Amino acid sequence: EIVTCGNNKKVYSRLKKKQKHYKKKMLLLSYAHNMEELMSAADLIITKPGGITCAEALSKGLPMLIVSPIPGQEANNTSFLVGQKAAIKIANAKDLVKVITDLYNHPEKLKALSESAKRISKPAAAEDIAKLLSGL
Q: Among 22, 31, 37, 69, which Cα is nearest to 50's?
């Protein structure tokens, strides 16, 4: 597994201390400059639902497990993504392992999330807008 913590130094530090006790090998990264590459290799992403992260994940067909969305845009993104069956909201971080285990034990669920993410993605949105505007 690959885990990147972005700018969250607190989470990185806590995981670093616990890393040697995990049963599976884990590559722990703080900030990563190659998120496109990491997302391409991923089966799913555990994230907060910021706009850019959501757009990138959707364009990859990457299912999202959403933890602790903040009120406002992140909560709205979460409602939309869960409603479209492209994401699962994790109400309690303690449930994370249970949800991940369930997805890996039932690959059809992970595949359905991925297909939903692909269905609602708009990877050519900027080009579509430019074409529309150029025709005005």
A: 69
**Paired tokens of 133:** 């505007």
> Whole-prediction pTM value?
0.84
Residue with tokens 């699962």: 88
Which amino acid appears at position 31 of this protein? Answer: Y
CA nearest neighbour of 67 among 38, 43, 96: 96
pLDDT digits (tens, 9 = 90+) for 9-24: 888 898 888 888 887 7
Nearest to 66 by CA among 90, 82, 85, 44: 90
Cβ partners under 8 Å of residue 115, min gap 6: 61
DSSP the chain: -EEE-TT-HHHHHHHHHHGGG-SS--EEESS-S-HHHHHHH-S-EEE---HHHHHHHHHHT--EEEE-PPTTHHHHHHHHHHHTTSEEEESSGGGHHHHHHHHHH-HHHHHHHHHHHHHH--TTHHHHHHHHHHT-
